[in-house]
Task: inverse folding
């Protein structure tokens, strides 16, 4: 497992690969707080009513005792930096991350994971404060490209429909590189923004 | 920012370590460590390693400015719960989650109550002054509208929250970057709510005066003022007359009726009535009465509708809604959801839309 998925990534990808968090080949994992957010938050209940079909597929992983020690150290450092209003170099405003954001960053750092999220503040914080430790981020389309490359997923009408749904739901913007890679893998133009 | 880089120098000396050795272990230049000593905050990854190397927590290098910016004088505790340091820290941690909201905004001019003497004997004078500020000039108990009006007029921002189990309180007052803030636990029964609001109001005013009372003494004073405000002599006299000569069960029923009509618990009133004491059976009656009333959280979320929720908040705590609305464009949906305590009850995106709408309405 290499990629710690935030809620939006799981929401966007789980219908494409329901096994994404169960089969290590997909290289994805998540934490219990994200799982709770997906299944307990009103926004997701209304916007993605289908998500309950995947309740048993969205599992979270447990930190080993060694990882837990590192996690606690990272979380303490993240908390003290945020308590002291560290400035985001990209917009000049103090970072103000939610509790889940902090836990995602601490887990990713403690377990040497990339983060798949569309939350810019979260990613900016990890990149700016832990440039050597942070393994980087990958947007949902990048994760899909990884699966296409590994032939875990192949293009078909079902996949195309889910990507149309990304567009309809105005899911976060993907990078130009990922769009171009998607075209290489599928010979289809990426539909969303 | 409250970074104290000079503490690195102190620790190096204490642990007999060389600056070069530290720089080498952390894989940074000697200049970088010097910059930290002179005041530059290290990146998170260096701060973590530096703390580990010198055997201190990362927070060691920061002054207590954050704590000074957030004062938590006292709690209104629940029943017999003990107020411990851990309890206060949990409350302070909760308050910290809101720090940016208050730091980025001016508190404005707030009224200060000028009454000499802070002791139980002049609690009635305080109560009378506060009732005047709330706009009450007769002997009725203070109602919800007046209680919220009072806090608003005194510049006290109310934050309704689900408190974590570690905070065993109905409410607590703190000052965050000079804003007066009262946190109210959403599990508070509405019959207990007014008293808690009044109690925290007195804490807010005492905090302003810099009054250095012992905790128990301040608690007792806040209780006394809140009691006088909620149960003025005219009201207690009226209740005493109404129950005079009745059998105990009839007295209890009548007190229940007064409590229901005027939105307060039985407990505080009974303690003021001659010839009655707060016995276990009366406590049971009080508990039963409260079962028929909602908690403030249940009322706020009763319709699970974002616009209704924001409207309720705006009615009860307009300044809080104003502060959150100001941050809508700069803050993540998740964080706004946390501030508004939406949990799984309301979609944060819809609540943000409702905030934007009411913001436009105001403009």
Result:
């Amino acid at each position: 497992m290499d990629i710690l998925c935030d809620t939006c990534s799981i929401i966007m990808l789980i219908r494409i690969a329901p096994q994404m968090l169960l089969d290590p080949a997909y290289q994805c994992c998540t934490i219990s707080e994200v799982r709770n957010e997906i299944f307990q938050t009103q926004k997701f209940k209304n916007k993605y009513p289908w998500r309950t079909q995947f309740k048993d597929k969205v599992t979270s992983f447990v930190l080993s005792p060694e990882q837990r020690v590192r996690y606690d150290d990272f979380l303490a450092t993240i908390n003290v930096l945020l308590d002291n209003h560290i400035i985001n170099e990209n917009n000049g405003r103090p970072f103000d991350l939610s509790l889940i954001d902090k836990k995602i960053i601490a887990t990713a750092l403690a377990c040497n994971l990339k983060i798949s999220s569309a939350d810019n503040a979260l990613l900016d914080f990890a990149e700016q404060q832990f440039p050597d430790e942070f393994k980087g981020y990958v947007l949902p389309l990048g994760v899909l490209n990884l699966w296409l490359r590994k032939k875990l997923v192949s293009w078909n009408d079902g996949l195309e429909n889910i990507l149309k749904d990304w567009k309809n739901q105005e899911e976060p913007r993907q990078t130009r590189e990922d769009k171009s890679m998607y075209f290489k893998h599928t010979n289809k133009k990426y539909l969303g923004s | 920012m409250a970074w104290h880089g000079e503490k690195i120098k102190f620790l190096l000396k204490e642990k007999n370590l060389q600056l070069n050795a530290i720089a080498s272990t952390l894989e940074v230049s000697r200049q970088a460590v010097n910059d930290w000593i002179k005041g530059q905050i290290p990146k998170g990854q260096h701060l973590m390693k530096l703390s580990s190397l010198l055997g201190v927590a990362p927070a060691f290098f920061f002054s207590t400015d954050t704590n000074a910016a957030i004062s938590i004088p006292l709690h209104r505790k629940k029943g017999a719960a003990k107020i411990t340091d851990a309890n206060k820290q949990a409350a302070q941690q909760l308050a910290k989650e809101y720090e940016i909201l208050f730091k980025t905004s001016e508190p404005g001019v707030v009224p200060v109550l000028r009454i000499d003497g802070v002791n139980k004997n002049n609690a009635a004078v305080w109560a009378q002054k506060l009732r005047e500020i709330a706009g009450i000039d007769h002997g009725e108990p203070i109602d919800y509208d007046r209680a919220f009006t009072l806090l608003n007029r005194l510049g006290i921002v109310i934050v309704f929250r689900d408190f974590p189990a570690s905070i065993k309180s109905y409410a607590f007052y703190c000052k965050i970057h000079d804003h007066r803030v009262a946190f109210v636990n959403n599990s508070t029964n509405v019959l207990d709510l007014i008293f808690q609001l009044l109690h925290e109001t007195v804490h807010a005013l005492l905090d302003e005066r810099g009054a250095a009372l012992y905790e128990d003494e301040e608690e007792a004073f806040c209780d006394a003022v809140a009691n006088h405000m909620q149960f003025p002599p005219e009201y207690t006299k009226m209740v005493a007359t109404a129950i005079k000569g009745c059998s105990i069960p009839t007295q209890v029923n009548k007190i229940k009726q007064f409590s229901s009509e005027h939105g307060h618990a039985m407990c505080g009133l009974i303690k003021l009535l001659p010839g009655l004491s707060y016995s276990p059976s009366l406590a049971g009656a009080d508990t039963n009465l409260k079962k028929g009333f909602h908690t403030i959280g249940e009322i706020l979320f009763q319709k699970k509708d974002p616009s209704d929720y924001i409207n309720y908040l705006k009615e009860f705590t307009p300044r809080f809604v104003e502060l959150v609305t100001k941050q809508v464009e700069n803050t993540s949906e998740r964080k706004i959801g946390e501030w508004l305590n939406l949990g799984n009850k309301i979609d944060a995106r819809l609540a943000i839309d409702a905030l934007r709408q009411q913001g436009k309405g105001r403009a």
About this structure: The beta strands of chain B are 70-71, 75-77, 156-161, 169-176, 179-185. The CA atoms of residues 252 and 302 of chain B lie 30 Å apart.
